[in-house]
Amino acid sequence: MLKKIFFILFTLFFFIPNSFSKEDVKLKKQNWSFQGIFGRFDNSTLQRGLQVYQEVCSACHGVKRLRFRELTNLGFTKEQIVNYAKTFEILDGPNELGEMFIRPGEPTDTFVSPYKNKEEAIAINGAYPPDLSLLTKAMKNGPDYIYSLLVGYEDPPNDFELPDGLYYNPYHDGSVIAIPQPLYDEAIEYIDGTNASIHQLSYDIVNFLSWAAEPELQKRKALGLKVLIFLIVLTALLYVTMKEIWSRIEK
Amino acid sequence: MTKKFKNKTLEWLDYRLPIFSVLREALVDHPTPRNLNYWWNFGSLAGITLIIMIVSGLLLSMHYVAHVDLAFDSVEHIMRDVNYGWLIRYIHSVGASMFFLIVYIHIGRGLYYGSYKSPREVLWWLGIIIFLLMIAAAFLGYTLPWGQMSFWGATVITNLFSAIPLVGDNIVTWLWGGFSVDNPTLNRFYSLHFLIPFLIVGVVFFHIIALHKFGSNNPTGIDLNFKQEKIPFHPYYTIKDFFGFGIFFIIFSIFIFFLPNALGHPDNYIPADPLVTPEHIVPEWYFLPFYAILRAIPFKLLGVIAMLGSIFILFVLPWLDTCKVRSCRFRPIYKQFYWIFIFNFIVLGWIGSKVPEGHYLIISRICTAYYFMHFLFILPILGMFEKTLPLPTNIFKDSKKK
User: Which of B80, B246, B335 shows the shortest C-beta gap to A238?
Assistant: First the structure.
């Protein structure tokens, strides 16, 4: 009896936290292909996402933990990646003369961040545009949050006092944000001809950033399924063996 | 002298260094109560988890760099560039949570079946020492990735020492190796994080020696006097433990492969920044009940004392519980208080994740008070007045036996 009460209380307890906490803005939840146990990334949306990053985000944000060679996972060929990497200028050195020099990028290089350091980024922007490599992992419900943020810009309510140089976005902490709305309908022209609505742009960039944050995701889940199947079979066999061995004394 | 082994080389070696006969005694012949239920699996589960943590930690240490400018990047290097580095790291980080989950259940089992009572008090003490070492190892390990939560967690916890009168601030400076949490702090935390697991291994050996002196307690809690009540550890409990490992590995794998960050805090994927304080600084889930006790009390020093006291009180538990009957099965009233205690502990954990304001603060104070009430009043008084059920003379007469 008491056990029952305990378990009822226990289950109830998992519903309490949400009802107690102060009301959060509801995120615009999307169906992400990479969620769930069979989750996979969709290459076409990743490639479009890279284009969005390249043409919009990269002006202010880096993805410094990503290497060009990793783009093979997006379905690009080695040749395409070599050519793509070449378009970046990498500061290298020092050479034999003790001087730093600029060389074209190679697949083993990481993406180049737009600013030399955090201080320069702040000096130019007034606020620090964070590196995007781990963004979706660094916040709760990262993909849905970033998506909502990108499509969630709106005019402030009449009684809202917007500080100078900031923008109104109900999804951001305190409803104000330092970055002006980065994506609009038709902000860029997709190479594959997809209609570049703000939803599509935001959806694609979030896919790309999720991949950038967890490039191992697909491999991890695929391996996980194999491991689980193996373990379930093994455990079943162990169970049968256990019953067999214990039957010797349980007569 | 009778020969112990058929193999001549083994016999020769064992005669001079009796490790094989000791191992055989402990893992094969050891007479074990035949009525142990699945709750007795968690000791060996904790053992295997300790080994997994040491092996995965060793592999991580080959790639990790303990420096404030490099630690975060080196962890990401492990995640991205090291072959199966993500697997090793997730095994280690999820493993820490699993280790605590197992040990909490293991302790909970000890509380339910009265495993701490005479003559197993020292066994119980050694277990608490292991738990304390685990807490230290987990806290130190969590600082190593040098993310926001690492840094601020380290800051908050080391600052607790400043509550010590007179010398508090000096102690904090000494712990930090400077005037703030910085590179010397990270270095020594890494060093100690590497050391503690081996200390745990040492105490685990003592734990096992103490266990084998009187053998395992059992669900009836009675002393076993008949030979037929015990069976050799192998094959009966080896196979049962292996089956338990199987179930555990399935749960462990679900977290590693599908929910690797569910038990962690997203803020720790932001590199540490001493100039930006996270909105809420919360420890990992397994520390939340103690964190709640710490914050329930308005005076820092008292809070620290209460938090430490909530664990150290377990050392005197064998004497606070005045009832001679071990198992809850024969203590109908204590059984109810046991579940209330467990529920209270879980509520404390939930409160630990909240900002201590308004009704959260009130609940946390009630729960903290109840936590100590349980040990200091309920247990001693219950032992005197509770009418326990009649004990069976042997485990075969136990009505609940399958």
Answer: B246
Cis bond upstream, residue B235 (ω within 30): yes
The enclosing H or E element of B189 equals helix B183-214
Whether B240 and chain A come into contact, CB under 8 Å, resolves to yes
**Closest to B258 (Cβ–Cβ): which among A216, A224, A249?**
A224
Contact present, B297 and B368 (Cβ < 8 Å): yes
Q: Which pLDDT score is estimated for B402?
A: 44
Q: Scanning every residue of chain B, which has its alpha carbon at the shortest distance from the alpha carbon of A10?
A: B343
Domain stops at, among B277, B308, B343: B277
Cβ contact A189:B55 at 8 Å = no
Q: Per residue in A173-218, pLDDT tens?
A: 888 999 999 999 999 999 999 999 999 999 999 999 999 999 999 9
Do B40 and B159 fall within a single domain? yes
Question: Same structural domain for residues B43 and B161?
Answer: yes
Interchain contact, A133 vs B256, CB within 8 Å: no
Q: Which residue in chain A is spatially nearest to B85 when comparing CA positions?
A: A216
| CB contact (8 A) between residue B243 and residue A238 | yes
Whether residue B300 lies within 8 A of chain A, CB to CB, comes out as no
The answer to whether A232 faces chain B, any CB pair under 8 Å, is yes
Domain of B312, in residue numbers:
282-389
Amino acid identity, position A101: F
- Share in percent of chain B as helix, strand, coil (round to 5): 70, 0, 30
Interchain CB contact of A133 with B (< 8 Å): yes
Answer whether A223 sits within 8 Å of B257, measured CB to CB. Answer: yes
CATH 1.10.760.10 describes domain A41-66+110-239: yes
pLDDT along chain B (402 residues), means of 10: 82 94 92 95 97 98 97 97 97 98 98 96 98 98 97 95 93 95 97 98 97 95 91 96 98 97 94 92 95 94 96 97 95 96 97 91 96 97 93 80 46
